[in-house]
Amino acid sequence: MSKIEKYKNQIIQGDCLELFKEIPDNSVDMTFADPPFNLKKKYTSYTDSLEFQEYLNWCEQWISEMVRVTKPTGSIFLHNMPKWLTYYATFLNKFAHFKHWISWDAPTAPMGKSLQPAHYGILFYRKKEKGTKIYELRHPHKRDRKQGFLLKDYGGKKDKLHPFGPLVSDVWTDIHRIKHNKKRDLHPCQLPIHLLDRLILLSTDEGDTVLDPFSGTGTTAISAKRLGRNYIGFELDREYVEISRKKLEAVEPNFKLGESWVSFYLNEIITIRDADWEKLKKYFIIPKPIKLIEFEKIKLIDKDLIPKEKEIIYEANNLCKVKMSKSNSNKITSINKQTDKISLTKEKIVI
Ligand SMILES: C[S@@+](CC[C@H](N)C(=O)[O-])C[C@H]1O[C@@H](n2cnc3c(N)ncnc32)[C@H](O)[C@@H]1O
């Protein structure tokens, strides 16, 4: 077994700089990092307030490791606030290749000041200038929430619109932060999984390996697993590791429509690969003539094509509750963290 194989599909507890030493050069297809932003956030095992230069020196160490372990065909993604990304980019420009600065529009609650941060950045670098795996992606047309009409005016070009939606640009406005506490783990800055779905569909294939050195409660790993990829996650905090492992047990590689991997969110598909459209279109009812797309959305031919997701809610009393959606919704699986036993009861879930 090659050295990388024994780390695949694991969330490993420890300091990422130590754990990186175990990972061979050029061995993973994509690296993604969402580090602590040095904002004094309340993590369980990490003090999020280093001196300015101390923070940057530390970042440069793990960024170098990300580049080292990424394959020559692979991509490197760094998520942070624009302030820190300017330093990351200056550093990375020396030994990787800039591809895009993705702006993720993720507004926070109004704080009563102008120019309040309303977007995060995701730096997208290639390890080598040529030969990187990158796929074209599409997302659904943006529509008025009340009437469902297209927001953008395509003028006389409506009959040339793509039935699913436009190509994804470098500004992402359709992915919201996790707002509801019931969807969130005991983690101060968990990312939405479909943000990672989009990056993984952009840069990897089925069976590829994705590594996240700041795994938190396992967002990247869950996305990778449900999209048929392998994952490696590093995380300092034991409790976050435990939550991730429990959540991952409930995830299946089922984010698929026919043969194509897609990202589902709230009963819709929100990212597809452009190249998959020919195989995917048979699963949709498409308005005819196509210019009617201005008023009507395409719809899945059958709602049962949407995978049944199990939603895990971590509770402070040492239980992880697994909510099974749809037909299985009258069962709760309780996992006792002390005994690690899983029991299935027939209680009804009150959501
Ligand atoms: C911004 S959070 C990542 C959240 C993650 N993307 C998610 O969606 O759950 C950063 C994480 O890095 C972890 N961390 C901090 N220092 C670390 C280190 N040296 N090695 C590994 N993990 C570390 C923190 O415990 C925290 O969970």
Summarize the structure in words:
The chain is α/β, with parallel strands linked by helices and about 350 residues long. It has two domains: about 5-255, Rossmann fold (3-Layer(aba) Sandwich), CATH 3.40.50.150; about 310-345, no CATH class. About 20% of the residues lie in helices and about 25% in strands. It has helices at about 15-20, 50-70, 80-90, 195-205, 220-225, 240-250, 275-280, and strands spanning about 10-15, 30-35, 70-80, 95-105, 120-125, 135-140, 170, 210, 230-235, 255, 260, 265, 270-275, 285, 300, 310-315, 320-325, 330-335, 340-345. An eight-stranded mixed beta sheet has the order 1-9-8-2-3-5-4-7. Strands 16-17-18-19 form a four-stranded antiparallel beta sheet, with helices on one face. Strand 8, helix 5 (about 220-225) and strand 9 form a beta-alpha-beta unit. The protein is globular. The termini are far apart. The relative contact order is 0.14. Mean pLDDT is about 85; it is low at about 325-350. The site of S-adenosylmethionine has 22 residues, from strand 9.
